[in-house]
Structures are given as C-alpha cells and as structure tokens.
C-alpha cells in the first residue's frame, strides 16, 4: 500500500477513506517498531502528496523520539548514502573507504527500521551531498523512494551510483536519474578507476581537497 501511495490519485483515494485512515492511525502507534515506522512513512507520503507537506512533517515527525544524529550547527555537513539493504556489501565498502578519507557519513545500516522518519529528514536536510545507489531493489523500496524524493524536494545535489550489474533505471528512478551520468560500481568494471571517478566528483562538490587527485589503490 505504501508503494501504491506514491501515485497521487491513489494517495488521494486513501486520504478520502476515513475507515482506512483510522486503521492506519492505530497501526502507526503499534508496539512493533517496523510496523510503526512503515505506517508512519505511508501516512506522511499521503499527506505530502495531498499538498499538506508542513502538516505532515509536524504530525508524523513530532511523535518520534529526537534523532541520535547531530544536525545543523552541531555537525559539519555530511555525505548521505541512500541505498537498498540488498546491495549492502558494495555500499558498506564504499562507506568505509570514504570514512578513511575523513568524510562525515550518514548511512542507515539497519534498513531504515533502525531510524525514524525524523532522523532521515534531518539527515537529508543537513547533507552537503547525497549518494543514490541505484538497483532494482532500490527502485521497489518505498523507504528508498522516500529518501530520493525528499532529496529532490530539498534541492540537494546528488551523485547516482550503479550498484547492480546491467540494471537500467526506469520509472520514477529513471526520471530521477534524467540525463545525469552515473558511476558504475556494479562490478561490470574494475573498482579502482570508478573509485577515482567518485573522488573527482566529490572534489567537484567541494567534499574533498585536490590532494586526493593522485591515483591510488583503494582496495
């Protein structure tokens, strides 16, 4: 149902059903953290697609516990990594290598269920740059789509990375990619040249200094 509500017409139809909304509101207070998180994501999606973005943020973010992640003036602008858990192996490898470069990273290593909607929103809002790790599972994940669309709405710069071999983004993910060139970490090409491409992109976005331009073995 959450995935279906990314369609504006479906979101409006769900919004018009008081009986369904009442049941969803009850589920949003479930003792099961995963259920609670997913239903709140669904409700937030419905509200913002029905042109009530501010009210949605206030209603569904305020109930969450404060984020454990520092934001705003408390933390330097970080690099936000948006990915599907299925591709965690290559994504976590990239995360470790980027941290070795001294970059502050925000990444959810618990499949979104370990963090709240508020934590995600704050992380995107306070990001200097977003890495969007594209794959088929990413496209079909409502959590990933929420992160991507929020990145776009916030006007954040993002770098698309391909993390599934031979995958061709279509639908909403293809539209998000547009004419942007992606960096291919799917295993189709050797890792080091693609790593150096990413380093150059990070330099262009002022995330790294020019001293990183030297060719080096990242593995």
TrEMBL record:
Domain of life: Eukaryota
GO biological process: one example: signal transduction
Name of this chain's protein: TIR domain-containing protein
Domain TIR: 80-198
Organism: Mytilus galloprovincialis
InterPro entries: TIR_dom, Toll_tir_struct_dom_sf
């Amino acid at each position: 149902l959450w995935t279906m509500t990314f369609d504006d017409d479906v979101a409006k139809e769900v919004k018009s059903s008081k009986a369904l909304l009442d049941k969803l509101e009850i589920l949003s207070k479930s003792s099961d953290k995963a259920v609670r998180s997913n239903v709140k994501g669904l409700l937030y999606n419905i509200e913002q697609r029905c042109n009530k973005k501010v009210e949605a943020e206030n209603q569904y973010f305020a109930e969450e516990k404060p984020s454990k992640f520092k934001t705003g003036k408390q933390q330097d602008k970080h690099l936000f990594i948006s990915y599907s858990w299925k591709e965690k192996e290559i994504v976590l490898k990239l995360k470790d290598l980027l941290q070795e470069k001294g970059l502050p990273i925000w990444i959810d290593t618990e499949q979104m269920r370990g963090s709240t909607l508020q934590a995600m929103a704050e992380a995107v809002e306070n990001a200097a740059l977003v890495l969007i790790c594209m794959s088929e599972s990413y496209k079909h994940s409502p959590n990933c789509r929420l992160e991507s669309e929020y990145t776009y709405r916030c006007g954040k710069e993002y770098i698309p990375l391909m993390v599934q071999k031979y995958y061709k983004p279509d639908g909403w993910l293809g539209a998000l990619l547009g004419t942007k060139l992606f960096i291919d970490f799917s295993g189709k090409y050797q890792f080091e040249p693609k790593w150096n491409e990413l380093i150059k992109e990070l330099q262009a976005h002022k995330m790294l200094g020019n001293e990183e331009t030297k060719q080096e073995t990242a593995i």
